[in-house]
Amino acid sequence: MLSIIIPVLNETATIEKLLIHLSENISGENNWEIILVDGGSSDGTPKKITDFAETQSISFHLTTSEKGRAKQMNKGARKASGEIFYFLHADSFPPKNFDKYIISEVEKGNPAGCFRMKFDSNHWWLKLIGWFTKFSWRACRGGDQTQFITKQLFEEIGGFDETYIIYEDNILINELYKRKKFVVIQHWLRTSARRYKQKGVWNLQYHFVVIYAKRWFGADSKELYRYYLKNIKLSNKEVPRKLDSKKVLAEKRV
Questions:
Q1: N or C: which end of the chain has fewer CB atoms below 10 A?
Q2: pLDDT tens column, 131-149
Q3: Closest Cα to residue 50, out of 41, 39, 60?
Q4: Residue 160: φ, ψ to 5°
Q5: Domain containing 144 — which CATH number?
Q6: For residues 149 and 84, is the Cβ–Cβ distance under 8 A?
Q7: Residues 152 and 240 in one domain
Q8: Distance between CA atoms of 132 and 115, rounded to whole angstroms?
């Protein structure tokens, strides 16, 4: 069985769309389950999930956890029945027959990996980032590409490190690269560029590079989270804006 584990927090805008996408794009040839782990949503996300589940023939397991993707995903893994875990962000949409690709890789002896990724944006920089995800280089990895891993290997590593409020995906990926147990499935998944729209492409990309560098030079989870809160976390006043290459370049010059 493939256990699809999705951490959610205030995802009323996207969660129904994702669940429909999963039901329409899974092959139907394998046993599977969806486990949604809510981290304390205040926008009615759990109700939206349960209301949607009542209209579908597919069952969705909804549970709760303390806020924090690492804690939520570990909680989902403990609830999972499958021998393969597939960790999926609420705004990432895997390719057609994604379950077949994942299970095929595990059967080949590849116990962990991800998909290639492209953003739902035509901005040239985001398209370039997506193009680079086809390579196996460690620097090209991130949580938005989603993550499959066998239960056995996940437990061997110890799951996600819950001391990390951010960067938890990368910590797990680092462990997998150390073990040389990672493969990039050469099929595209689509992920949202909403945070880039909200913060600005160059602004957000700069802060992501700083976080990566800080961790490289030994910053701990608390330091990374402090930087995130100061420079990346969205305020209630921030709203998405259209990605315009000329405007973004002008912002960069300023």
A1: C
A2: 999 999 998 998 899 999 9
A3: 60
A4: -75, 145
A5: 3.90.550.10
A6: yes
A7: no
A8: 12
